[in-house]
Write a structure and sequence with these properties.
- The protein is α/β, with parallel strands linked by helices.
- 37% of the residues lie in helices and 19% in strands.
- The protein is built from 10 helices and 12 strands.
- The strands form 2 sheets. It has a 6-stranded mixed sheet with strand order 2-1-3-5-6-4. A 6-stranded parallel sheet has the order 9-8-7-10-11-12, sandwiched between helices.
- Helix 1 runs antiparallel to helix 10 (271-285), helix 4 (107-117) crosses helix 5 and helix 4 packs across helix 9 (250-265).
- The radius of gyration is 19 Å and the shape is globular.
- The relative contact order is 0.15.
Length: 294
């Protein structure tokens, strides 16, 4: 693909950033769409974030993704943020329009899009969500926006997670339990979707898993792990062994990237092309134990 003075520039910023798979996905989609864009990874140390944002604006970048550790720190540096980014408390995508920087969060859209690709509708569903960290915020926003009827959050420390549950209770019904409570067992039995938003099972601790009462799991309950390295966590392996449909985090990563692509270009990304590019990069890199993005 030829680049010129008319080429529009996109990027992902983070520290470190060499592990990022976003350039692989985005450039594959840009090339398939025949768009004169280029997407690169830029290392930005935390202390340099304000200057980097000013530089990207001055250089006329069409937009950029934001990853660890800048997702929250960048908010005061932007001209506006969308509803999802405000609710989640993090920005992962920035769009430059008429000199103004708008912060967005496409993680929730990616989370929901991967479920929709599997023909799973959240409308009226009962959901168990494991974890209450930063990733859980995006999942919660997506679940409520898609019409989930009730969400039970299962955690190791309910007291620590209570502020999150109270904050998101404005959007719908949330209950909070410790993993070993009897009420949590009942919630798992009634759940139609169980989501792991913890880091348990991620490389290198691949045998770790949230403590699910597997004897309570009903056939047909959908299990979704937002981890994608390894491709099959012990959480998903156990669910699949019980005949449950399963989904890992690759689709969510592609989905958030596709949503950002549309914000920048106004075009719909070829999801299959992005997924193939991502999967190929992951397969090549898994033996090297890459550091997952969030």
């Amino acid at each position: 693909m030829m680049f010129s003075g008319r080429t529009k520039n996109l990027a992902v910023i983070g520290w470190p950033i060499a592990h990022s798979l976003s350039p692989v996905m985005q450039n594959a989609a840009l090339q398939k769409a025949g768009l004169d864009f280029a997407y690169i990874a830029l290392p930005v140390a935390p202390a340099d974030l304000p200057e980097a944002v000013l530089g990207l604006r001055a250089l006329g970048f069409r937009g950029f993704n934001v990853t660890i550790p800048h997702k929250t720190a960048i908010i005061p540096l932007l001209d506006e943020v969308d509803a999802a980014a405000r609710a989640i408390g993090a920005v992962n995508t920035v769009v430059l329009e008429e000199g103004r920087l708008k912060g967005c969060n496409t993680d929730a859209a990616g989370f929901i899009g991967a479920l929709e690709a599997r023909s799973f509708s959240l409308a009226g569903k009962r959901v168990v969500l494991l974890g209450a960290g930063g990733a859980a915020r995006a999942v919660l926003w997506g679940l409520f926006q898609a019409g989930a009827a009730e969400i039970v959050i299962g955690v190791r420390n309910p007291q620590k997670a209570r502020p999150l549950a109270e904050e998101f209770s404005r959007y719908g019904t949330i209950r909070l339990f410790e993993w070993h409570e009897e009420s949590f067992r009942h919630a798992v039995r009634a759940a139609e979707l169980v989501v792991n938003a913890t880091s348990l099972g991620m490389v290198p601790e691949i045998e770790a898993s949230p403590p699910i009462p597997w004897e309570e799991v009903q056939p047909g309950t959908f299990f979704y792990d937002i981890i994608y390295t390894p491709a099959e966590t012990s959480f998903l392996r156990r669910a699949a062994a019980q005949g449950c449909p399963v989904l890992n985090g690759e689709g969510m990563l592609v989905g958030q990237g596709a949503a950002a692509f549309k914000l920048w270009t106004g075009k719909t990304a070829d999801f299959a092309v992005m997924a193939e590019a991502l999967h190929g990069a992951l397969e090549r890199g898994r033996s090297k134990k890459p550091k997952p993005e969030r």
